């Protein structure tokens, strides 16, 4: 080196350093390029195996399990609604009772077995007073009695039967006997038969019984659950 200096030749350290530096960069670049190329080739090779795409496929996103519909609930079968039992009519107030009578009470129908008439007869179901027979334990019913004891139009309360109006007579109904109207013979035997009962007379009849009287009395009983006093005081 001293000989080179004496000869006027100076070594170029900067250039050498630069060359060394350049060589190192190139080597590093080549090394990186080589590595990158190798990766690209591997990716290309993998892509060709997966279908030709050079992009590495990402794993499909895991789908959340879909909620399954719960089994349909079985339709609830509702129990049949029980209809409230009809409220029996109230007995008359003590001050309304004119007299109490102990009588023998039987049952009859409008049919042939009781009246000798069939449904084709023009007077079928028509009482001696001219009104149609009826049975309504929540309002008023028609009965037969001896007019010498209980005149037509008389209003009675009969325990176990309800309120009734004397509207009919009968050849076998004499003295303290009454005949209660029912729609069918089955009802006669099932609901009544033959009984001895004490009935309450709350209005003595005048020998007449009309449809308007029965309707007026029936509406009043359904409204008040008994016969109001004002109705007994009226001429009905």
General description of the model:
By secondary structure, this protein is α/β, with parallel strands linked by helices. Helices cover 31% and strands 17% of the residues. The protein has six helices and six strands, in the order H-H-E-H-E-E-E-E-H-E-H-H. It has a six-stranded mixed beta barrel with strand order 1-5-2-4-3-6. The longest helix is centred in the first third of the chain and has 38 residues, at 13-50. The chain starts with a helix and ends with a helix.
Q: Brief description of this entry?
A:
This protein has helices at 2-6, 13-50, 112-115, 185-192, 211-224, 229-233, and strands at 99-108, 141-145, 155-158, 162-168, 177-181, 194-203. By secondary structure, it is α/β, with parallel strands linked by helices.
Q: What would the keywords be for this entry?
A:
236 residues, disordered N terminus, 17% strand, alpha/beta, 6 strands
User: pLDDT below 50 for ≥5 consecutive residues: which ranges?
Assistant: 1-10, 13-34, 50-57
User: What portion of residues is helical?
Assistant: 25-40%
Strand order of the largest sheet: 1-5-2-4-3-6
Count every helix, treating DSSP H or I runs of 4 or more residues as helices: 6
What percent of residues are in strands?
A: 15-25%
Total beta strand runs: 6
Helix and strand element order: HHEHEEEEHEHH
SSE class:
alpha/beta
**Average of the residue pLDDT scores:** 78
* Major pleated sheet: 6 strands, mixed, barrel
The shape is extended
End-to-end separation in angstroms reads 160 Å
């Amino acid at each position: 080196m001293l000989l080179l200096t004496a000869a006027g030749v100076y070594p170029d350290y900067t250039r050498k350093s630069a060359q060394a530096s350049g060589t190192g960069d190139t080597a590093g670049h080549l090394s990186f390029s080589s590595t990158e190329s190798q990766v690209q080739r591997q990716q290309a090779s993998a892509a060709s195996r997966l279908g030709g795409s050079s992009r590495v496929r990402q794993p499909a996103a895991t789908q959340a399990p879909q909620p399954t519909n719960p089994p349909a609930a079985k339709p609830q079968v509702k129990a049949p609604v029980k209809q409230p039992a009809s409220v029996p009519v109230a007995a008359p107030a003590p001050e309304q009772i004119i007299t109490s009578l102990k009588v023998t009470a039987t049952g009859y129908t409008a049919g042939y077995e009781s009246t000798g008439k069939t449904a084709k007869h023009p007077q079928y179901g028509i009482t001696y007073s001219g009104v149609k027979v009826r049975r309504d334990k929540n309002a008023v019913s028609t009965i037969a009695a001896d007019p010498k004891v209980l005149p037509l139009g008389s209003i009675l309360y009969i325990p176990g039967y309800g309120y009734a109006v004397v509207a009919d007579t009968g050849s076998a109904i004499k003295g303290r006997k009454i005949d209660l109207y029912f729609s069918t013979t089955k009802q006669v035997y099932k609901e009544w038969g033959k009984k001895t009962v004490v009935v309450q007379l709350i209005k003595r009849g005048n020998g007449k019984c009309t449809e308007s009287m029965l309707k007026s009395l029936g509406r009043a009983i359904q409204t008040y659950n008994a016969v109001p006093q004002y109705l007994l005081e009226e001429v009905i």
